[in-house]
From TrEMBL:
Domain Integrase catalytic residues, every copy: 127-292
Protein's name according to its UniProt entry: IS3 family transposase IS3501
Lineage: Bacteria, Bacillati, Actinomycetota, Actinomycetes, Micrococcales
Cross-referenced InterPro entries: HTH-like_dom, Integrase_cat-core, RNaseH-like_sf, RNaseH_sf, Transpos_IS3, Transposase_IS3/IS150/IS904
SUPFAM superfamilies (UniProt xref): Ribonuclease H-like
Function: Involved in the transposition of the insertion sequence.
One Pfam family named in its UniProt record: rve
Organism: Demequina sediminis
Entries under PROSITE patterns matching the protein: INTEGRASE (PS50994)
UniProt superkingdom: Bacteria
Length: 307
């Protein structure tokens, strides 16, 4: 109410605004109440809000403007602010920011009914006890003014880290998914022994050039059902988040190259800064660093064998 009066007082005057709106809006300020509020010393809560609201707006913008209450609360706590979840929600409303909602999935792959298909080694159990045990791969697309940009991701299930990605103007297996796989393999040192590579039955992933490369690297191929939202659910969820958090937020997109540059920045943010609810509000990088730190730490001394 005070903000509304401040915005219109030069045009209508305080007395007229309060007199007219008190008849239409139950509990609207009187002119005397307005003047008392304007001269009153700001409360501790107001002073804190004045400090936190710009911080909420800044952090929200720095994280692609996609965080909802839960992640903004975790982020504010990580920044050192002693703040509750309900307070975070109130400050987000005051700052005019909100989280984004996921959209429905669109299918981008087609299966070849004549192709011999690897078995499903995952069976919808998307969990791993260490990095480089299980990777999931999938493809999505982005409409641009110059045609479609196709995007392939390879994700490590343990840490949710995107280990390989490619943006191209074609769906050809040797260009789109294969380059994403090669990037992931390079990051892993070129040896994928003991790793399971899971995808759907799309012809991109069942092409000989791709399946031969998976085996050559030492990985075990695994496939779910094409078009099934459960058999490759984790990879499809990442595609959905990518479309929700980046593509629909920052469009329209003009060229494939523009999408590629934006995806480069987004993948870095996803791996290094984005808080993941499935990881206990940690980043993929933090999860992997914690895993390797535990491996390097000395074994605890058994009870009774030390000071």
């Amino acid at each position: 109410m005070i903000r509304f009066i401040d915005e219109h007082r030069d045009q209508f005057g305080v007395e007229l605004i309060c007199r007219v709106l008190r008849r239409a809006v139950h509990g609207f300020l009187t002119s005397r109440g307005y003047r008392a509020a304007k001269t009153r010393t700001p409360s501790a809560r107001q002073l804190r809000d004045d400090l936190l609201i710009p911080e909420v707006a800044r952090l929200h913008a720095e994280n692609y403007g996609v965080y909802g209450r839960r992640k903004m609360h975790a982020l504010m706590r990580r920044q050192g602010w002693d703040i509750g979840r309900d307070q975070t929600e109130r400050l987000m409303r005051a700052a005019g920011v909100r989280g984004v909602k996921k959209s429905k999935r669109v299918f981008t792959t087609k299966s070849d009914p004549k192709a011999a298909l690897p078995r499903d080694l995952v069976n919808r159990h998307f969990a791993a006890d260490a990095p480089r045990r299980l990777w999931v791969a999938d493809i999505t697309y982005v409409a641009t003014w110059s045609g479609f940009a196709y995007v392939a991701f390879v994700t490590d299930v343990f840490s949710r880290r995107i280990v390989g990605w490619t943006v191209a103007s074609t769906l050809k297996a040797e260009i789109l998914p294969l380059q994403a796989l090669d990037m992931a393999a390079w990051d892993a040192g070129g040896d994928l022994s003991g790793l399971t590579h899971h995808s759907d039955h799309g012809s991109n992933y069942m092409a000989m050039v791709y399946t031969d490369r998976v085996v050559e690297l030492g990985a075990k191929p695994s496939t779910g059902t094409v078009g099934d939202s459960y058999d490759n659910a984790l990879a499809e969820a990442i595609n959905n988040l990518y479309k929700t958090e980046l593509i629909r937020q920052r469009g329209p997109w003009r060229t494939v190259e523009q999408v590629e540059l934006a995806t480069l920045a987004y993948v870095w943010w996803w791996n290094n800064q984005r808080l993941h609810g499935e990881l206990g509000m940690r980043t993929p990088l933090e999860v992997e660093e914690a895993y390797y730190a535990d491996l390097e730490s000395p074994q605890p001394v058994p009870a009774g064998q030390g000071n």
